[in-house]
Amino acid sequence: MTAARTATAQQKPARIGIIGGGIFGATAALMLGKHFDVTLFEQGDDILGGATYANQYRHHGGYHYPRSTETIREIKEAAPDFKRFYGSAISSEFPSYYCINAEGSRVTAEAFLKTCDRMGLPYVREYPDAEFLDASTVDLSVKTSEATYDYSRLKRLIRHRLKKERVTLKLKHEVTGARIGPQGEKVLTVLQSGRKKEYAFEYVINATYSQYNDFCRWLHFPLRRLEFRFKELVIVRIRTKPRVAVTIMDGPFATLVPIPGKRDLYTLGDVPLSIHKKTSRVRSASARNWKHPVSRWKEMFARCERWFPVLAKAQYVASMFIVLPIDVASNEADARPTECTYHGYGCWSILSGKIITSVTTAKKLLAEVRALEKKRATL
Ligand SMILES: Cc1cc2nc3c(=O)[nH]c(=O)nc-3n(C[C@H](O)[C@H](O)[C@H](O)COP(=O)(O)OP(=O)(O)OC[C@H]3O[C@@H](n4cnc5c(N)ncnc54)[C@H](O)[C@@H]3O)c2cc1C
């Protein structure tokens, strides 16, 4: 038993159920597991298999959000917490270039630089090698030291710590319902190998990302207005060295980012072609239930070669398909905040924006659970 657990031993440690073993659910489990009796439910056969796997692994510095100072501020505030907790999974193997497209960008070169200066985002005006960027297509190129996450390292680290914190990890356990019991306990219905079982908790955290609204519906909490984007990220092999990341801003353009720890591999995203489908009609959406379409990698290569000439000699490796849920209210400014909402009744939901905010969010949850526990102890 940890010291903190022993110290509160007169009162049994509260039981906390966390739904979703992505970076947000797993980090909350690690933080809360030091003090409480935590069970983490993941429907897949491993942790970090959802959006935390199928993304571009950017350790965001803020450059991607020139129209949302709120998102930049949140990223900057969250960075020290993430570094302290997961520092060894941050990779600075290559520089990251941000460029403003010559035509049709929602942000001008001047406005982009002003935002960087105002928000304290360091850069130097510089172009990457001509193989990685046709300079005639852009008005501006800046070199930054924005890092990336090494996904494999992050996963190993989290797996190891989950064992150490003695979080009960339940893989292949899908939460299919929730209700509030007669004593105020939260009862989750969980499906495993075709059998349903119920588990009771004092507190429950919903960290299911694109399935956010399922939990709200079960417990009659307000639903969030979400738009779901069904996206394809293409993995490509490029042998040209040295490696660099290049992102063309701000609108229907493209981005090429090396995958840390994978010598020749990159993720390629193309803003219009990556999105196979958009809808706000469904309440929840999961990549698991989405019939994967035919890959558009050939069209993406053809369109993106105008910026990235190196694609002419790149090889297609695979595609990752994922659903991106976006809060309709924050979409206009292209904001991607992480929101952790307390619904009351000992229940929270997280709608995450960026991985870098996962540790700060878990800290906030720990503070809120502790405050509620103090109240519970005086009852
Ligand atoms: C295309 C794309 C690119 C992105 N690029 C970046 C980037 O470069 N950098 C960055 O910081 N962020 C990026 N993001 C955002 C980032 O990926 C997400 O904010 C983050 O990974 C979400 O983590 P999560 O834990 O909330 O969700 P997830 O990682 O999706 O985890 C949710 C988990 O919940 C499980 N689950 C769902 N319902 C249930 C249930 N009923 N019972 C049990 N388990 C359940 C799922 O199986 C899943 O494992 C990107 C997102 C997308 C879609």
In words, what does this structure look like?
This protein has one domain (3-378): 3-Layer(bba) Sandwich (FAD/NAD(P)-binding domain), CATH 3.50.50.60. It has ten helices and 21 strands. It has helices spanning 3-7, 23-33, 69-86, 109-119, 151-164, 212-218, 271-274, 297-304, 328-331, 358-378, and strands at 15-19, 37-42, 58-59, 90-91, 96-101, 124-125, 138-144, 147-149, 168-171, 174-180, 186-192, 195-201, 203-206, 226-237, 245-249, 254-258, 265-270, 275-279, 315-327, 339-344, 347-351. The strands form four sheets. Strands 5, 6, 7, 14, 15, 16, 17, 18 and 19 form a nine-stranded mixed beta sheet that branches. A hairpin with a 2-residue loop joins strand 11 and strand 12. Helix 2 (23-33) packs across helix 10. The two termini are 26 Å apart. Flavin-adenine dinucleotide binds at residues 19-25, 41-44, 49-52, 55-58, 60, 174-175, 207-209, 211, 231, 233, 322, 324, 352-356. Flavin-adenine dinucleotide (FAD) binds at residues 19-25, 41-44, 49-52, 55-58, 60, 174-175, 207-209, 211, 231, 233, 322, 324, 352-356.
> How many domain regions?
1
The third-level CATH topology is FAD/NAD(P)-binding domain
Q: Which regions contain 5 or more consecutive residues with pLDDT less than 50?
A: none
The CATH architecture can be named as 3-Layer(bba) Sandwich
